[in-house]
Input
Amino acid sequence: MFEYLLDLLSSNQLAPHGYCLLWRPELIWTHVFSDALIGTSYVAIAATLALFVRRRSDLAFGWIFWCFAGFILLCGATHLFSIVTLWQPFYGIEALIKLATAIISGVTAVALVRLIPKALALPSPQLLREANDALAREMAERERTEAMLRQAQKIEAVGQLTGGVAHDFNNLLTIISGNIESTARALGSDANERISRYLGNAMKGVDQAKTLTGRLLAFSRRQTLDPKPTDINSLIRDITELMVRSIGEAVDIKTNFSNPIWTVEVDRNQLENALLNLALNARDAMIVGEVATGKLTIETKNQHLDEKHASTYADVAAGDYVVISVSDTGAGMPKDIIEQAPEPFFTTKEVGKGTGLGLSQVFGFMKQSGGHLSIYSEVGQGTTVKLYLPRFLESGAQREPSGTSSAAAAPRANGETVLVVEDDHNVRAYVVELLKELGYAVLEAPGGDNALAYLKSDARIDLLLTDVVMPAMTGRALADAAIGIRPQLPVLFMTGYARNAIEHGGRLDAGVQVITKPFTFAELASKVREVLSAS
Output
């Protein structure tokens, strides 16, 4: 190899290129001028490319520019060395320069061919302009949205302040109204006209105070409403198809309507938006991977809230309501999330995928419509959102019997004992108080283990009234264990889920006795007596 290079670089017996041109001056100097100009230009082009690539480190496919720079530089060197060979026969060096040029030109050609598909995939100037225009529109929309959000935050800041005051005031009203109602029921027909008038005036003041707190709670939600008498069942039928298109066909939508359903006075468009909002929230809760799958159950029913039951909620008046239940079989929410869910801007979704305003808007709309919203959820089981809309009674229409008369007509106990199992202390205390008022002897337990201790004892138990979903032991598991101990013991389940949502979701077997939360004094009395009589 070394000898080959020596022979290649040897200029013995070789004549310079000028000899072939017979040393004619016009030919010699024409070659010199041309090769010098071409070589210098090539070198300048290569240097310019190299400088450009070095300063633009973000350039796509920068390596191909370096290949071009090397190829052009060697081309220029070939022309410049041709001037030398006019007088000196250094053809070996010239051959090596041409060999290097050939190698780099071949590499550049192959690389360029393989680069063409990627280069063609680069966006054209037109596409870049369109993308830039779209980005400008998005930025303008984002600025507009941020401006709206800042305004909403200002309004909500005032709303939260007034809402806090209203919340505390309603706690006081609950105590006041509850004691007034209890006093009226305790006195009954023994109260003289003057005492009845005093109690009535006190309740009027409470009602006026409730109206005031309702206005405070709705302060930051000043949407213009156009309420009209509306048939809820017809409204839901009309938007069911839109719901299917909005949440996807993978979610099974079931409806269960109570007939006849009372008329409500409500803004139809706003209620449709509220239901769609709840349906979309339910869809998001049922997403597995990237697809929402599960069941969405929408139910309607008529319900009367008596004074005692209504007093357990803030700013809810006793009376007749149409209840719309929207239940899903999604992931569910823990208690702390349920408490925060109606708050403005609170969301459990990823950043950019939720504003936290959806449920807050539904809550504000219900308040502004004179209604109420409640949420019941269990992690891993699903969520039920209930919308309470006040019944609309036209002029001259007869109202249903009041809560007091309903309580008076409620079926009473016949010496039975009821075992109440509920993990929520407030709910358990409320149920125990109602049952005692109905004349039942009551045993209470905060969980399955405590209930089993009663069941294994000699205590008389005529009915097991238990919540469905509880920590450590579910209501279903407790009922199975109870029947194993006392085979003839009737069981009544309490649940915050709508009845059909539970049955369709497969959480309880068909035929199981269920009473859904919230229930009134009369509803609990009737259901307990029904189960006891059937046994």
